[in-house]
């Protein structure tokens, strides 16, 4: 199933409300947070305004760390169609569509939380990326993901589908963050609340067949096994807080810190109550400790972050 929720300047209020099945917008509420309705339960994070703000703050942090590059694949001169897989608020789609007005930029998500008014070259669709894609084969020049570790259960199948729907010469590019706070100077104690939070997040994710842990080499191998070549891995460190000396990274860390302080409840509550058996009040009490540590500039913590880009070079062998 796929529901088109916006086609640039073709959007009308009436078509918006009639083209989406009511089940998609019949949101679910739990512990005061709003969750997606389509494919209910597949995604454990909320989709309400607070979570949308967190996603946008995290996006700005990553753009700063990436020196304002929306992507690294060398397809800029002939970019015709782009897919943002798991688009969230659509902020990446909007930026790319603005920068490349001659390209059609698509965003897919389980939740219709994207802007209702956009450029004519923007198209959004409500769908499940882990089901067969509804796009034509050999269609896109670039397929992009950003922080999808908490969403995709089957990365090898995702890469296989991406390859089928890319034109020869197209790229898949993943911007993924390893949910394991690290330091280069051992400033974060091994028994810290942050470390315990990361451990619990991963334990909960594994109970539903996902992992929040990743390395660039693992993504590279999965891309290569799907048929991609010339796979390149770029490593970044996404700081948490304003401890870096570098001005740009310090600004990125500020955005990342606010994202965590304001959004950690949404990242945690469903995971721990649904899958680890915690009571909501105990989750809240633990998060007070985690937030206190995130605010501590003596802890030089960062998220290991990877940009992995692979080329689909052959027309045959699919």
Explain what the structure shows.
The chain has helices at 13-19, 22-25, 49-65, 91-99, 155-165, 193-207, 216-226, 247-275, 280-294, and strands at 3-7, 28-30, 33-35, 81-85, 104-109, 122-126, 140-146, 166-177, 229-239, 302-312. 37% of the residues lie in helices and 21% in strands. It has an eight-stranded mixed β-sheet with strand order 1-6-5-4-7-8-10-9, sandwiched between helices. The two termini are 24 Å apart. Strand 4, helix 4 (91-99) and strand 5 form a beta-alpha-beta unit. It is an alpha/beta fold. The model is unreliable at 5-20 (pLDDT under 50).
Show the helix and strand layout:
Blueprint: E1 3-7, H1 13-19, H2 22-25, E2 28-30, E3 33-35, H3 49-65, E4 81-85, H4 91-99, E5 104-109, E6 122-126, E7 140-146, H5 155-165, E8 166-177, H6 193-207, H7 216-226, E9 229-239, H8 247-275, H9 280-294, E10 302-312
Parallel strand pairs: 4-5, 4-7, 5-6, 7-8
Antiparallel strand pairs: 1-6, 2-3, 8-10, 9-10
Helix pairs in contact: 3-8, 5-7, 6-8, 8-9
Uncertain runs with pLDDT below 50, 5 residues or more? 5-20
Annotation field: number of helices:
9
Residue-averaged pLDDT: 87
**Percent strand:** 15-25%
The N- and C-terminal alpha carbons lie at a distance of 24 Å
Helix content: 25-40%
Topology pattern, helix = H, strand = E: EHHEEHEHEEEHEHHEHHE
Adjacency order of strands in the biggest sheet? 1-6-5-4-7-8-10-9
Alpha carbon gyration radius: 19 Å
What structural category do the secondary elements indicate? Answer: alpha/beta
Number of strands: 10
Query: What is the general shape?
Result: globular
Main sheet, how many strands, which sense, barrel?
8 strands, mixed
